[in-house]
Design a protein that fits this description.
485 residues; alpha+beta; six-stranded mixed sheet; 13% strand
Amino acid sequence: MPAKTGMQYCERINAQTVPCWYKGELLTAKRSEHIAFSGLMKTQMNMYDLQYDPQLTELMTYPSPTDGKPVGMSFLPPTSVNDLRKRREAMTIWAQTHHGFLGRSPDYMNTAMMAFFTAADLLNDLSPQYAENLRNYYAYCRDHDITLSHAFIQPHASKISGQMDATEDAIAAKVVDRTAEGLIINGAFMMATQAATSDEIFVYPSPSPSPFDDENPFAFSFAVPNDLPGITLICRDTYAAESNYNYPLSSRYEEMDNIVIFDHVLVPHNRIFFAGHEQMSSTLFSGSNFHIHAGHQVLCRYIAKTEFMLGTIQLLTDTLDLSNEAHVLEKTARALAGLESLKALAIAAEAGAIPDGRGYILPAPKPLMAANLLYPKLYPEMIEILQLLSSSGMIMVPQEEDFQSGTADSLNVYLKGSDMESKERNALFRLIWELGAGSFGGRQTQFERFFFGNNITVSNRLYKASSQDHSQRERVRQFLGNLAR
């Protein structure tokens, strides 16, 4: 199957048999009919349908090198600046569809698999079969439009001294046996976002220290279908609700996070990308330029989300007749400056593209890393602007049902805006409430703060990327040298 439609996506997820627990109950109904998943799945169905929109197909897809059938543009390994542009345009269309609120939209992991594919040759040092496995799996994902989740993070208790003994009761996921068919994996992973609404899970943990001198049982990477025997998903509470009016964001864009438990799961040999080699974990991850390629996709999302946030600020300002207030202009200008900075960084990343040494091209790393450092501060600032400008207005927000009751006439009188009818004005404030005070908005803020790691980690990436560039230092040294003469 080439690029899929929304209905094909829905049918695949509904056909899954993986045990999925929600609020202590094992789910048995179709995933698309459950409140925790239905809104997100409808959004992603719309996104996949865009691949077959006659006006967008050439932007959203390209011919597969396997059979020439259309496949998703976010799978395209870039070999030119024009390829980077094509990828950005396609990813922007999807980002604008969900207004940047889907941190794990399908193109994120499509991009990740593309990045690892470009570095597959690094695995030849361990085993040519590992390299072939990775190349084949990328092609499989591309040609079948696989929707991927990923599991990178292990339970916090795994870090506690005494847990890393590689015994049967160790908490960290690890290899507990090797068979003729493959590896036996036992343990758990945290925060697999969209695991319950994806086809497969890509697993790549940071390996924990091993007590053994030879192979590290905690070092591995593989990908498996969600409903492989022994896999169980546990959901957090959902923030979603049925009413698009009462919950305009969570009813559409709520991404479920899952704990993924591997209970002695057999991972076939052809799905293993490496196992036992701790050094290869960091070698492949850095060699794939994951943070750079993924950063290009993420920047498209940042821009779409900032445009949406700015539009919300501007609409609120108009509604409250505050457009001439100096403090409001200053706050709005900060959001505008953030948006223009992000757009400029996107252009700089493509204009400064560099070869990766393996026949592919990379967007310039420093602009993308600068965006990764900028946005975790910009997004909470925009949330605060909405909170400050809306004041108590974001708290007293009637529900859709109130406008269908005997109180509707009163609401229509007392909640009118200067240029908005009461129900539309109230809808704006319900949006702001979800962003600034609701559970969905709280997750979004926390998510953006730590998307690519904490502030120190992200700062360190940018610093290291810039540390080899001595041009600024030399310019100042030359200036000082001229003064000394």
